[in-house]
Amino acid sequence: MIILGTNSIKDTGYDVANSLRFNDGSSDTLTKSFSSSGNRRTWTFSVWFKLGLVPAASRLFSIGNDASGAIFSIFFTAGDLRIEDVQGDPVTLEFRTDQIFRDPSAWSNLVFACDTTQGTNTNRFKIYHNGTQITSFSTETYPSENADTLVNYTTGSATIGARAASPSNTYFDGYMSEVVMIDGQQLAPTSFGEFDSDSNIWKPIDVSGLTFGTNGFYLDFENSGALGNDAAGSNNFTVNNLTAIDQSTDTCTNNFATWNPLDNFYQSNTYSEGNLQVQTQSTSFTYNSATIGVSTGKWYWEVEYDAKSGGTDQPMIGITSTQPTANDNELGNFPNDFAWYTDNGTGYLSNNNTYSNVGFNAYTVGDVISVALDLDNNKLYFAKNGTWEKSGNPESGSTGTGAISITAPASTPLGAYFPSVGDATNSQNATFKTNFGSPPYAISSGNTDGDGYGNFEYAVPSGYFALNTKNLAEYG
Question: Which whole number is the average pLDDT over 442-458?
Answer without folding.
Answer: 95
